[in-house]
Each structure stands twice: as C-alpha cells, then as structure tokens.
Amino acid sequence: MGVSGAGKSTIGKMLGKALDCDFLDADDFHSLSNRDKMSQGIALSDEDRKPWLETLQGSLRKRLLNGETVVLACSSLRKQYREILRGSDPDYKPGSYSSCKVKFVLLEGNAEVIAARLQKRASEGEHFMPLTLLQSQFDLLQADDDCEMIFKVSVVLSPEVIVKSILEMVTNSLNP
C-alpha cells in the first residue's frame, strides 16, 4: 500500500515472484470512468472507490478460498478501504488484525522523493495519474495506527532490500 509513485507495482511483482504466487495490480481493476477522472486530475471520491474495492475484495476472496497466496499492489490509503480488503478473508472479524490472512505493507516516503518518481513515470507514459493528485493521496493516507498491524518499509531502500524486509516481517508475524 502507499501513495502513487511509492513503488507498489515494482515491489509487488518482485514479491509475487519471490513467493511464487500471482501478482495483481489494483490499477488494472479501475473502471474507465475512474481512469478518466484521474487522468484529468480529478481525485476519486469514496463513492468512486467503493465498487473498485469491492471488485478487488471479490478477486482476493476467490483466491483465499482456493488456498492461494496472492500479492496485491493497492493504495489502500484509508482504514475503511483496508477493512473492505480484509473482508476478503472469510474468517476475518473486524479488529482481529493479527489473525487476518490479508496483510498490509506501507511503502513510505516523503512527498519530494515520491513526487520525483511519479513525475519520471508520468513523463515515460507509465502511469495515468498526474502528479497534481499526489498531495490528495498524502492527505487521505491513514497509516499511523499501530494496532492495525501495518508493516512499514522505506521507499529509499533498494527494491531487493524492500522485498527481503517484507518477507522477513511477514514470516516473523506468522511465526512469533
């Protein structure tokens, strides 16, 4: 999870490969109208995001019910969005974060570092969200609640170190 430009897709692909599992990019699930809004510099509302999150939830639930591991790159900026995604675990009880099969990793960094990355990707035509929406994502980000058990990794580390750190954190949380 994290704001646009944090490296979610890059790290997610690498993590999926390391875990030998499917990788899903939440951006691929956005409706055309959501993509159009973002490309025009219009921030999505909760009403825009809800059907998107519910689609992601359904895709995750299907995989979890089949006993699969999957890596999803998704902004998941607000706690309410993460709750929808946690709901893909059929055994999840709200607030029981440690036993939930859905885990979150925040790729965190300051606005200057992430803005530079996002600007580079946009100039290469690799992303549909303009730099002008980055601040709205930082404004929405809710990730300071330690009880929610969000793993945090700095975006300034190399991708390999980030993936290794995530694997260690998740393994340690599953085998206390």
Structure summarized in a few sentences:
The protein has a single domain (8-168), classed as P-loop containing nucleotide triphosphate hydrolases (Rossmann fold). The strands form 2 sheets. Strands 1-2 form a two-stranded parallel ribbon. It has a two-stranded parallel sheet with strand order 3-4.
Shape: globular
Work out the oligomeric state of the chains in this entry. Answer: single chain
Query: What integer is the average pLDDT?
Result: 90
CATH 4th-level superfamily: P-loop containing nucleotide triphosphate hydrolases
Q: Cα distance, first to last residue?
A: 23 Å
Radius of gyration: 16 Å
* Biggest sheet statistics: 2 strands, parallel
| Topology-level CATH name | Rossmann fold
Q: In DSSP terms, counting alpha (H) and pi (I) runs of 4 or more, how many helices?
A: 7
CATH architecture: 3-Layer(aba) Sandwich
Query: What is the count of β-strands?
Result: 4
Count of individual domains: 1
**Poorly predicted regions:** none
Any idea of the CATH class? Alpha Beta
- In the sheet with the most strands, the strands line up as 1-2
Structural class: mainly alpha
Overview of this structure, please?
- The chain is mostly helical.
- It has a single domain, classed as 3-Layer(aba) Sandwich (Rossmann fold).
- It is built from 7 helices and 4 strands, in the order αβααβαβααβα.
- The strands form 2 sheets. It has a two-stranded parallel sheet with strand order 1-2.
- Helix 1 crosses helix 7 (159-174) and helix 3 packs parallel to helix 4.
- The longest helix is centred in the first third of the chain and has 20 residues, at 46-65.
